[in-house]
Amino acid sequence: MRNIVLGVAAAGISALLGWLARTYMWKRKLRRQQAFFGLPDNSESLLVVNRDASSPDLAVHRYDVFALLELAALIKDCGAHAEVITQDAARQGFGERTEFCVGGPGSNRRMAAHMHAMLPGVRVNTDPEPGPDRLAFQVGSERYRLEPGLTEYVLLARLTAGESGPSRPVFLFCGQRAITNQAATRYLARNHERLARKHGNTPFVLLLKVVNSQAYGPDVVELVADVTRAAQTPLPTPAVSRSAHRAS
Question: Cα 81 to chain center, whole Å?
Fold first, then answer.
């Protein structure tokens, strides 16, 4: 009888220790995730969505809706709350609340403002006229052209207001097409632990390539490069020729 009681007690203690260890690891993982996203318990965040550039109405593309759902799940996992607003309704600065901004600068003026302020080394061709460079990215000296349905690019960035500013980050999902915005949010959802280990809470800008979206949708994504330095370095100002001076 004594041995049975001791065995039951030992099993109970082992189960308790195992539960405590799992709880500790889960809470540690949660705290790392909350720190990476800037989302402590019961905090507020902002989801800024663009409009569908192909629609005459004030509509949101279905792939951007899917992107918002991906982000909402991440926010819920952190025990935080989200407010969804459209790009033309965002009238506040950044840093007070974590912000997730979805869509390219041609359809999201909030994205255009963030890129102008924090990514001076990036240009997006928003010219509506058709051509080989339409919607192309320029990052530093490199250019990345769109091949619809085959090769498409998206920038995934985690940025902050600066060392002296507030600590809440803004996440940018700037794609050449709506499906690439969803691809970037899905990439973040799948890889945020690895990104947190690599970058900590420091800013980063990643260039991602969405491969054959017409067959695979937003699921096949490749990391092209970490372009943080190039994206944050202002592009050189084009030199003005002498003939231009004489003409003026």
Answer: 17
Tell me whether residue 26 is in a domain. no
Q: What is the CATH number of the domain that holds 37?
A: 3.30.379
pLDDT of 174 above 90: yes
Q: In terms of pLDDT, which residue wins out, 247 or 58?
A: 58
Question: How far is 228 from 128, CA to CA, in rounded Å?
Answer: 28
Asked if 59 and 86 touch (Cβ cutoff 8 Å), the reply is no
Note whether 105 and 174 are within 8 A (CB): yes
The pLDDT of residue 158 is: 96
Q: What is the pLDDT of residues 73-85, one digit of tens each?
A: 999 999 999 998 8
- Count of CB atoms within 10 A of residue 217's CB? 15
d(CA 223, CA 203): 17
Cα gap 158→201, rounded to integer Å: 9
Determine phi and psi for 66, rounding to 5 degrees.
-60, -40
The CA distance from 134 to 144, in Å, is: 10
The answer as to whether 142 is a domain residue is no
Give a yes or no: residue 185 inside a domain: yes
> pLDDT value at position 169?
94
d(CA 248, CA 242): 10
Residues above pLDDT 70, as percent of the chain: 79
Range of the domain at 221: 31-111+149-229
Q: Please indicate whether residue 19 or residue 141 has the higher confidence score (pLDDT).
A: 141
The DSSP symbol for 117 reads H
pTM of the model: 0.83
Structurally, the chain folds into a number of domains equal to 1
Q: How many whole angstroms separate alpha carbon 34 and alpha carbon 38? A: 6
